[in-house]
Design brief:
Strand content: under 5%
Number of strands: 0
Number of domains: 1
Structural class: mainly alpha
Number of helices: 5
Distance between the termini: 59 Å
Helix content: 55-70%
Largest sheet: none
Length: about 100
């Protein structure tokens, strides 16, 4: 909890808005779960509604982030959009070698 508070008090320009909202939702989850004695499902739904104005799917994601926070002390890096979805003709090795020589 102290580490999450430290993230909120750091320079906001060093953290993206998406990551800030992830940390906010995890912090809200822990407050609901530990301080207000809610079940983990109810705490996650409450955090999803408060931070994202979303429902069950987002609450599952918040529980995954919280589990990862408990196990490792960090929130896993977002890998959305990191992989090329289609094979490009320009990226073909044979085409590159033919055009370079």
């Amino acid at each position: 909890m102290k580490a999450l508070k430290a993230i909120f008090h750091q320079n906001k320009k060093k953290i993206t808005a998406y990551n800030y909202l992830r940390y906010c939702s995890i912090y809200e989850f822990f407050i609901n779960w530990q301080v207000k004695n809610m079940t983990s499902e109810d705490a996650a739904i409450n955090a999803a509604e408060k931070v994202y104005d979303k429902g069950v799917y987002c609450s599952r994601t918040i529980r995954k982030w919280a589990k990862n926070w408990i196990e490792t002390g960090i929130v896993s890096k977002l890998l959305q959009g990191c992989y090329q979805k289609t094979k490009s003709f320009i990226d073909d090795e044979d085409i590159i070698t033919v055009n370079l020589f």
